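Morning. Coffee machine broken again, so started the prediction first thing and wrote up yesterday's gels while waiting. Chain of 293 residues, entered below exactly as on the submission form.
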Amino acid sequence: MDDPLVHPRLKDQQSRNRASRDLWHRFAPHRQRVTDLLIGAIPPAAHAPRLVILGAGNCNDLDLARLRQQFSTIQLLDCDLEAVQQGVERQGLADDPALIPTGPVDLSGFADATPAWSPDRPPSDREIDAALSAASAATLHSLLPSDVAASIGLLSQILERLIHDLGPQSPRLLDLVQQVRHTHLRLLIDHLNPGGIGLLITDVVSSETAPQIVEAQPLALATLVRELIQQRNFFTGLNPAVIHSLLTNDPLLAPRIDDITIHAPWTWDLGSRVYAVYAAQFRRRAIDSPRRG
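Came back before lunch.
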C-alpha cells in the first residue's frame, strides 16, 4: 500500500528501492568500499561517534554490523521508510536501538513545492522559482548532529529526475541543478558536529554510455573517468572537478569546511548497469571562517 505521507514525486525512488532490494550479494565490493570510507572518516577526537546516512534505501551498500562496531548511533534517512526498515531487518539488526530508520523524508529539498512535473507537462517559470526557493531554504529537522554524515548514491537520482521532468534542453535546468546540488552539500555540512566529516558518494557515469568501465581495472579507472569527463560523458551536475571547486570556492560552503579530498573512483555493479562511483570528502571547521568575496 502506498504511504500517504510520501509525495508523488518521491515514489519513483520507492520503485528503485524495490528493484534493487535483492541485490545484496552483487553489492558486496561497493558495500565494502562505502563501509571502509565511513569508518575511515571517523574523527580521531570523536567520542561515541554518530553516523547519519542520507538515502539509505535498502541498506545494501552499508555493512551495518561493521558500522555498528564503530558508531554509537546510526541514523538512516530515506523517503522510503519501509525499505530502510526491511534492510535493517535483513541484516539482523532490527532490535538494535542504536539504528534509527527515519522517514519518509524529502531529501531533495523541494518536493513539496512542486506539482507532479513530467515531460508531458513541463513546469512553468513560477513553479520552477518556487522549487528553487524551497531548495534554497531546505532543512532536515529530523536529522541528528553527527560526526560522519554521508549521502550515498542519492544526489544523482535527484538530478536524474529533474532532467527527466524538465528535459535536458530546458533553459532553467542548470539553475535547478546548481541549487539542488548546493543545498545537498549544505545539508551535509549543517548537521555535522565541529570537526565532523562529510562524504558525498555519487555515481558519475554508467556502462550505458561508457561500456568500457565494466572491464576497467581499478588502477586504470581514474584515468578512464577523467577521459570520459573530458569527452563530456558524465551525469549532469556530478563532475568531480566541479564538486571540488564548489567545496573549495563557494562563498557559503567553503568557509565552513576544509580538508577536501576526492577519493579515487570504483565500480558499482547493479546488474543491468555498472556505475563508476567516487566520493568527495570534507571536514567541518570547528569555527566557520569569515565569508569569502
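Residues 1-6 have pLDDT under 50 and may be disordered. Going to sketch it on the whiteboard this afternoon.
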